[in-house]
Structures are given as structure tokens and as C-alpha cells.
């Protein structure tokens, strides 16, 4: 045990996996956040034909087995598919088996979590406050940017962190869609899975496990701190 | 001359609202009525926060809403300020940021004056959640005014406050109103609020406009109706303070014609309010003649018909200071109360209304046109200001 702790200096392999994990999840979360805010606002404030169906599709990845998501992504974006072919031919770009593919898988899985949290945040804003802003001559866009968005910020941040954390743990969709390629798509969970599969690499797996736990704790504490700070600001505490 | 023309209909669940109104360009108009009468809906439709089913709203030369022509100007383009019952400050912005939220709000001498007038200068850096109810409403009023509206709507802005705070804010508000040159529409079900601030009155009941016009005429007509469901039958008057009688701590006030603004020549004694110049004592007649009465400094007086009694002879002394010789001009039964509302006009045409029992009427053998004395206890009179 002592040896285990003393030897806790990250190996190059672990650093690669860690950085890749952060990169995949970070990029996916950042890219999908504006979309999540848009969808969250849409679901909270508007009603349109087919809203229930739209909502169901957005939330579907929450309940689908991740391997199904990976499979569907593979069907849609592999170079054999129409969309994948189109991207490759016109932009020379492909998702499958690249870190961007892993990011796409993470984005699909993280989106519904973010939307849920963000939608709730918009739901909780008193519409009357937005009405007051309208009577002061502020355009709907200005009301959104200066009133709705700042007031929803705690929910948006916690949604983003939730999405990020979910992304860091993404396994099924990623391994199905982007495969398990070291340095390319082998994120922390995927690396851990490989060690578990390899006889005699239990220690390596345990080390990755600890890293994963530490990252999760940091994310949760950060989220808690940010939310508290926002709440304090609203309560007028300096 | 009407400035705001409203002719709208709206169905809301089981209720239907139908408002026809024409309001003048200046002054404060109070929208008065029981809850559920549609007061807030009316101003919401003027502000554009609620859309009427059909009809037309015209303000000055602008059509704000016209269902036939498909016109519906968006709320943020209407330039109509709105002070809500619940302040609705932006919780994430401090007082200063709230005040200057409107893009039209600019910091200059004028805005500084308003901030001082509303007593907000020391609160600028505070967050809304740390303010008291009264402070919050003052910020909301300032915020609406700084957006330079062409019309100001207020939805019971004082309703959430206790009596003490209400009085304080009413004071602030009265000062602000004096300096404003825009029409103000204020929803209320508080009569002292109406009496203090309003020039015009709109009576709403069950989604309809019962009556509208200058406050005293509308109010008095409603009270004289007798059969209406309200328990209070009172007459509203405008009056000016003439002088104080310090020996007995009494003030004499003179009634003012509502429409012409001229003095009527009819007086009342009431408890000294310390509103005018104090006379040391002594020669009453001299001071009465010499005092220059400032008719711009009017206040409202509400006389409850229960505080007015009728007597036949004027000769004997009475503890009641106000004994006015009148003729009975009309009489109206009050619901099932076995009592009567008797209207009496004095020699200057000022109408007083007494609520008396049917018994008294019969025993005193009162008749239309009969000469009587209206007695009003001076201690029951309180100026509303």
C-alpha cells in the first residue's frame, strides 16, 4: 500500500489518457453548451407543434444504452454512411476512430443532462421579471442576454459541469463509435477497461480509478462553489 | 380632450372583460374597484403584456392595438412605464443598475434629482434582496420613471406595505407626481390612496366600466347611488386650508369647486393639522379676511355620511362645531338597512350627505326642499394627504 502511494507519480501513459479525457469532454461540453442553452430556453419558454416528440428525442440518450448510441453514431457518421461520406469528400473530415468522434459521442450523451438542468433554471425564473424588463423598453434579445441568461447562470454552470463529468465517464458510446485507440480515443475509462482486461495490470487499473475519483470530486466541489457564489450574489452577500 | 382611447374586449375563462374608456392627457387616474373587477387586466392590456381579443387602444396619436388592422405594438416599443405591485427588481443587479436598466435612462441632473427625491441616493450599491419593501417600491418607481415613459401605469404599488410605510411612500410619490408631466394610471382598491393622488376616477366592476370622470363627481355619484354593495357612503371634496385657531387647536378649511378650482365660500372646522400659517390667537375676523388662500395647495376631504347628522333648529348651542344651513335636495334608500341617504345643498351649492334612519326621517317630518341644519363633528374630519 505504502509503495502504491509513494509511487503515485503519473506515468506518461496516464497523462496522455487524462489529457485526452479532459480534451474530449471539455471540447464536447463547450461545443454543446450553446445548443443546450438554446434547447433549454426553447423547451422552457415556447410551445410549438411536435414539442413533446422533440423533447423525447433530446432526452432519449439519457435512457438509451450507450452502446446503442454508439451504434447509431457509427451508422450515421462512418465513412460508409451518406453523412460520413459527405463530410469526408467535401471537408476531408471524419469522426469515426478519431478524438473528435469520441467528443461527438460525449456530446450526444451530455446534451440531455445539460438541457435538463438548464431548462429547469429557465423554468425557475419569474416571468414577471422579464416582463418588467420589457416595459422598460428592452428588446426580447436584450432581456434574454441581461436578465434570463444571468439569472439562469447557476443552472447553466451546474448543467455544464454535470455534462462534463458525464463526458469524462463516457464509455459505451465512445468505445462503439470511436474505438479504443491509445492517444486518439482512449480516454480514462477506456484505458481502465483495457487494464482490467489485461491480466496482472490491476494496479494500473486502480491508479486510474483513483484519478477518476479525484477528478469527479474536483468537478463536484467546483460546481458547488460556483453555485454558492452565484446564490450569494443574488442574496446580496458580498 | 381625450388622450387615451380604449375600447377592448377580452375573454378570460368564465369572465369577460369589456372596457370603454377615454382618459384625459394629464393628471392621475385611479382605476378603482373590487378584486376580480379586471383592474390589473386593463393596465396589462394597455402595456401590451396581455393581448385583448378585439378592439382598439389609442394613445396620443399612436394606435397601440387594433384587432381589425392587425396592429399590436410590442410592449418594449410602447414607451409605457409600469410599476408592479411586487416591485419586480432584477435580483442580480444592484439598485443603481436597476435604476439605469432602461437604455433611455441616462445619468444627469434630472436623474440625480429624481434619485434624491425618492430617497435612493444612499441605496445605490445595495442588492434588491437586502432592501425593505418600501425601498424596493421606491426603486421600482424610479426605474420606471428613468425609462422616460409617455404614460405611467401603477398596479397597487403600495399594497404590499404596512400602513406606516404606505404613508411614507405616498408622500414620496405625491412629490414625484407633482413634477411629472405625463398621465398616470394607477390601480387601487384603497380609497385613501385614491383620494390622495387621483384627479380622475375609473370605477370598474365585474369586468365593466361603471363610470369614469373627475374624481369627486364619480365618487359622490357612486356614494349617492345608495344601492351599491359597498358599506361606505362618503362624499369627497377638495378643500384648502384657511387658518388655524390655536386657542382650540382647530383649523378652518374652505371647499373648492372641483371643475373650476374656485373657492365656494363654504367653510368647515376640523382638528388642526398644522398645515397653514399659525395665528397666535385672538382676532379671528381679521385673520380670515387677511389670509391669502393658496388654491394650488388643495387637499381632499372625505366625509362619511355616518358622521353627518340633521337637526331642525339652528338657534340652540351644540357641541358640534359644523352646523351648516342646507336644503334637502334628494333622498335615497340604502339597501335593506332601513336607513336613508339624504343629500343637502348649502347656500353655495355644496352638497352634504347624511345617513339617517327611516325612523328619524319620519319623526322629524323631513321633506324635499326643507330647510335643515347639517351637523358634522369636526373631530371626525381628517384631511387625506
Essential attributes:
A: 238 residues; mainly alpha; B: alpha+beta; 6-stranded mixed β-sheet; 5-stranded antiparallel β-sheet; globular
Describe the structure.
The complex is a heterodimer of chains A (238) and B (385). Chain A is an all-alpha fold and 238 residues long. Chain A has helices at residues 2-6, 12-45, 51-63, 66-77, 82-91, 99-124, 127-135, 140-168, 172-177, 188-197, 202-235. Chain A has one domain (2-235): MetI-like (MetI-like fold, Orthogonal Bundle). In chain A, helix 2 (12-45) runs parallel beside helix 6 (99-124), helix 3 packs across helix 6 and helix 10 (188-197) packs antiparallel against helix 11 (202-235). Chain A starts with a helix and ends with a helix. The model of chain A has no long low-confidence stretch (mean pLDDT 86). Chain B is an alpha+beta fold. In chain B, the strands form 4 sheets. Chain B has a 6-stranded mixed sheet, sandwiched between helices. A 5-stranded antiparallel sheet of chain B has the order 2-1-4-5-6, with no helix packed on it. In chain B, strands 14-13-12-15-21 form a 5-stranded antiparallel sheet. At the A-B interface, helix 7, helix 8 and helix 11 of A face strand 7 of B.
